[in-house]
Design goal:
five-stranded antiparallel beta sheet, mainly beta
Amino acid sequence: MDRGINLIRATAGLLLAVTILLAGAGSLHARDALYERNGEVYLLLGGDYCLYRGVYRLNNPSNSPTNLKIGRLYDPGPSMSLAVDLDRNLNTVSIETTNLSTMMMARQVVDNSCLTDWVNSSTYQNYPSPSVWTAAQRAGFGAHQYCHHYLPGATTANPGTLYRAGNPGDRIWGSTTNRPFCGGPGIPLGVVGNAPLPPGYITVLVPGEDSIYAGKQWYAVPNGSWYSSWNTAPTNGNYCGLVPQPPTSYVVNQDTFVGNNYNWKLLSWHDGMTDPTTGASVGSSYQYTFSRNRRNACLDSCQTSTTPYGVTFVPRFTSVAFMPFTMNGTVQNASRTYFFSKEKTTTSYYITKSTAGGGLVNYTPSSDNPIIGSPTSTNVSNPDLGARWIGVSSKTGTDDWVYVMGTPNIQSWYNAAANANVTNMNIVGVSVSNQWNQKGGIIFAYDKTSNSIYKLVRDENLHTTTEYEIF
């Protein structure tokens, strides 16, 4: 069974995808009835234009059945990446938009494993003798009292809840206020260290400032809240005559994200259905601005670096590739969805993979099947000429050739195959189809400069383009 050509072109508010069914991978015999479905054409209008948005079937070359519906089949919502198999199962990837103000952040929050168990339900308590403090207790204590409810120097004089070790509503040892402001560490996500996080949470960290700590739990805390991180910073000053002076403190952050989260979900449809069924999340990307306030554990600006940290969202390219399930006798090989997201003006990118509609995992290619193309390709002066698309072609029943491409790749592969010297391509639409011998993908790319479609047949065992055509 094979997917077909799926050429995608996007303009303002509109996404156009055309899929043509092709047989392949030895799945059909010449007299197989499904063979006659070769050449069926499907059209996706998947942008924000609700009036015409839909998945359309344009023909029925096999004339089987004779009453097969031609025209608009269903509304996939704001979608991209149409894939159709020879059993006429249609799959699109739909965009679900969520305002970040309603989302929780995933953070490794200081919990009781820090041994700084100085949270008590009483109004006031004296500290244990400094001579018996552990290193973790000194880090949690900061420069003097662990927490003040009042924050001179912070952006607000009343931070509300601080998420840290302890139980919600508890008060901090040494606090002279009756106001409970410990929120506990947050909602446990059941994830430790580098393990994959569940979808539905803001997971963005600050490069060079945030670390992922092995053995430490992840918690969900509200967007915009204050929380104690496992990051440490030097303390300033000598308060309360403490000897020895606590050298470090767990950094307290207030992270605020403003913008949207885009969650990509797999939608499936076949003849006889009214609406498509919605599957699991197969990718996630953000569009946001971010700000951070940092304090030492005492929260009163005693840390050397107290200026707010700000990050403005860098626009991203996002692309999805879907490989439907296949049958190997009576064994079903699971479907696979790949999601590519890259900052337009930097080399920063990530690829996730979902198998059979399951949870997202970071895609790490094997040494004998590396990513084909250049996912870090970037053109700062004209970002559209960098890496933009991901495509897949079946390698085995359970593995795929994975392509990440932009204009430079298409131009280079064509020039090498045709012994040409084209230098002004502007590729604005790309698709990858399966090849019957599973040696590589068939790449279709639309060049805006020449108003042409380039077809490149790849042999990845030889790392070369074996055939090319221009339409």
